[in-house]
Design goal:
Elements (H helix, E strand, L loop, with lengths): L3 H7 L6 H19 L2 H8 L2 H11 L7 H13 L1
Helix pairs in contact: 2-3, 2-4
């Protein structure tokens, strides 16, 4: 069974390392923001989710075809 990254490579799509790093940092900031006290919490909460959504949106594949959207959604839940 192939890992997700290997599937992307087989499809001819190359992963963009700085986007993967930015997503990882945003995820870590979510964890840190929920575990530390108030002084830094406001600062982290001011940008960690917008950062995550902007970076995730940069890799989103847009489609007008509802059949393709349905199949992609179904496939992501089955895996």
């Amino acid at each position: 069974m192939m890992a997700y990254g290997e599937k992307l490579m087989d499809m001819g799509t190359e992963r963009i390392k700085w986007i993967d790093c930015a997503k990882g940092i945003a995820i870590l900031l979510v964890i840190v923001g929920h575990t530390i006290g108030d002084p830094c919490r406001g600062l982290i909460f001011s940008f960690h989710m917008p950062l995550f959504f902007i970076v995730a949106g940069a890799t989103y594949k847009y489609s007008n075809n509802w059949f393709e959207i349905w199949n992609r959604t179904k496939k992501s839940f089955i895996q």
